[in-house]
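Sequence in, structure out. First:
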Amino acid sequence: MNSSFDNIDTVKLIEVIESPAFRQHWQITKDMVKVCKDCEFRHICTDCRAYIEDPDDVLSKPLKCGYDPYTNAWSDWNRLPI
């Protein structure tokens, strides 16, 4: 991830959870994520925000998703670079 929320050995978890930087990621829903918002599987999908197609855009599609809702086609996401 591009973001770090400090070290669990030096910062209390409640401090991290209450930080605005952490809350920015906490509030992301599938209805906000590009491509996912158009996917019929968005409500049952597990999403990993650590790996996204565009690291500069927190709302970009998960890198480890091989489904294209516009073509209804699956691809092998294991071949995508991490």
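Second:
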Amino acid sequence: MRLVTTLTSKGQVTIPKVIRDELGLKPHDKIAFSIEGGVATIRRARLSLGEMEGMLPPIGIPVEEMPAVAWEEWVERFAEDNG
């Protein structure tokens, strides 16, 4: 599929809806660009844990401790279900 859009004087473009839908992009999503062999590609950016911090309401657990807390909760639920 090939779609064409126009670059504004501010260097902005509108990403066509079909591409936004295919990539699952929503307003304020991070987008990553890369260039290889003179070809530019666009993809939805993956966020690091640090970048995700603050996106959810505070729950009183530092981001770095969340994997351990999640594991402990899973073990407790598994034990209850398989008691």
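Remark: The chain has two domains: 1-46, 56-81.
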